[in-house]
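ARCHIVE CARD
CATEGORY: sequence design from structure
SOURCE FIELD: tokenized fold
FIELD CONTENT:
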């Protein structure tokens, strides 16, 4: 199993990718019907929500974690 700090780092990086991709998603779906645009945006929002929940779960799992602590990110 991977160390918790490494898993946290990977989830944080993935979350940043998803958040940075939202403007690009809007460009990619602009030619779709309104219903499909809404569906794509809802899916993206669900993925972001699940990723944030996973990050919170990992942070709470980490020994010595206190709510409000922001861990340092390791360099890529």
């Amino acid at each position: 199993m991977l160390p918790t700090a490494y898993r946290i780092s990977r989830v944080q990086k993935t979350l940043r990718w998803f958040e940075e991709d939202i403007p690009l998603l809007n460009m990619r779906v602009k030619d779709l019907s309104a219903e499909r645009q809404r569906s794509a945006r809802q899916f993206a929002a669900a993925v972001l929500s699940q990723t944030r929940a996973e990050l919170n779960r990992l942070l709470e799992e980490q020994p010595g974690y206190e709510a409000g602590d922001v861990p340092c990110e390791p360099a890529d």
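CARD ANNOTATION: Residues 34-61 form the longest helix (28 residues). The chain has a mean pLDDT of 87.
SHELF: design records, drawer C
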